[in-house]
Records
---
Amino acid sequence: MRILTALALAAALVLGISAPARAMSYSCDVTYDTSVWTGGFVASITVENTGTSTFSPWILQIVFAGNETMSSGWTATWTQTPPSLQAVNPSWAPSIAPGVTSAAIGFVATYTGTYVNPTGITLNGVACTVTYI
C-alpha cells in the first residue's frame, strides 16, 4: 500500500497535479464614529473581521479627502503620509480572527475648511465596508 501511495504522489508531482487549495477569504466591516467641531475631530474606530481568514499582523489605512492632520492616537501605532493615515496593530493584539471585533482604536485630528468623511478604509489592502456614525 505504501508503494502505491508513493507512486501516486510521484505521478501527481510529475504531472503537475496538486491538491485543491483552500480558498482564503478576507473581508471587514469598520465602524467610524466621529465627534466633529470647527477645525477638529475625534474618531473612534472598530474593525470586525467578516471573512474566514485571520488578519495577522494588520494595518488599517484611512484615506482622507481633505487636509486632515492627526495630532494623537491610541490603541495602535499611528503614522501619517497625507492623504492617508495608517494604524498598525498593537503588540498585544497582533491579529483579528474571523468573527472577532477589534478593540476600539482612535485618533484626534485637525482640518481646515469643511469636514468630510474618509474616502476609503482598508485592512491589509482589503477594502472594508464602512459605517459612519
Note: Helices lie at 2-15.
---
Amino acid sequence: MRVMFAFLFFAAAMAAIPYQASADNMREVRGLAGMHKLGIEKGRLCMSDHYHYGQTGVWPTKKEAKARAIKSWAGFTRLEYGNRWAQFRLAAAKKISCDLQTTSRGDGWTCAVEARPCSR
C-alpha cells in the first residue's frame, strides 16, 4: 500500500513539472506582456508601445553607471514580465544617456536607459 501511495505521489509531482513550465510561459507571454501591443521586429517579439526605464545613482565611472542602469531596467522588467523579456541586449528602441555629476564626494557618472522589452 505504501509503495502505491509513493508511486502516486511521485507521478503527481512529475505531472506538475510541465504544468509549472507552462504556467511560467503563459505568465511571460500571455500574462502581463499580453496586455501590450506586441509585434515581430528583427525576429524578436517586442512590445510595440510600452517602454521600461532604468537609472542609477552616482558611480565613479561611466561604464559602471551604464551597467547599473541596464541592471535596473532588467530587474524591473524581469519582475513584471519574467526572464525572457528582461534581456536588454534584445530590447528595441534603446536609449542610454549619461551625465557627469559633481557631488560633495567628488565627480561621478549617472545614467538612465529606456527601451521596449523584447523576447525571442
Note: DSSP finds two helices and six strands in the chain.
---
Amino acid sequence: MDEERLRVLNMVKEGKLTVDEALKVIEALDSSTDERPETPETKARWFRIRVTDVNSGKAKISVNLPMILVDWALRTGSKFASIGGVDLTSNGIDLEELRNAIHYGLRGKIVDVTDDDSGEHVEIVVE
C-alpha cells in the first residue's frame, strides 16, 4: 500500500497528477483496503484462558486452544444443548452468536473477572 502512495506522490511531483487528483486516488486506495475480505492471517488463531492467583500473581491455569477447535466445540455444543434440553438462551448465552462474533472479528479480552473470595483472576482472550 505504501508503494502505491509513493507512486501517486511521484506522479504529482512529475506533474502527471494534480494534488486534487492525487487525493482522490489515495482516498480510493484507502477505501478499497477497508472493503477487502478478511485474510486467514488476520483471523483469530487462539483462544486463551488464564487463571491467576491475585495475591501471588502465579498462574493457576493456562489453556491455549486453537480457534478451529473452539469453533468445532461451539457448533457441537449448541447441537447437544438443544438435544439435552439445556436452555442456554434463557441464561443469556447464544453459542451461535458467540461463534459468529469470534469468526467475524471479535478480538481481545472477552472476559476479565476477579473473584475476591477465592483470590482468583480469570481472563479469556481471543487472539
Note: The radius of gyration is 23 Å.
